[in-house]
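1st attempt posting a full record on here, be nice pls
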Amino acid sequence: MTKKRKITILGCSVLLVLLVGVGLAVGEAYERSPFKKGPSYFLEKMDAKAEELNLSEAQQEKFEGLKSEVRRSMEQGHAEGREIFGRIKTELGRENPDMNVVASLMKKQMANLQGRLGQGVDRFAEFYGVLDEKQKGMVLAKVREHMDKDHCRGHGGPWGEKKE
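the predicted structure (as tokens):
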């Protein structure tokens, strides 16, 4: 066997191990994620938080539209994710899986997720815009509280300071 062929085989093996490792890590993270609980989990949390805000009729209408979009987006995301991960599993189950196909599918799933999360942030900003000053203060307090929790500290804290 030539040196070039050995290096190629070794490189492909390392790539395969890395991609499978990433796939397993993504799958394990999903298993522990609240996303697995589906839309009802998030919609119930949204309802509870909205109840605290004591929304007016117009605000409640805007909120219901937001919830509807969240439900639709999450259901679509779950369906797309199941389909993509099924295709990844099928490809990895082949005798000689094409890791370019696996990588492409994983990138597609990440791009889909990023798009849905971005839309969610946009919808939240729209909803935030219809709140009165007192309600905005309540929302900001919750956001700051969330950002101050341990899981955000590794990112430099909520206001840029590094917390140890």
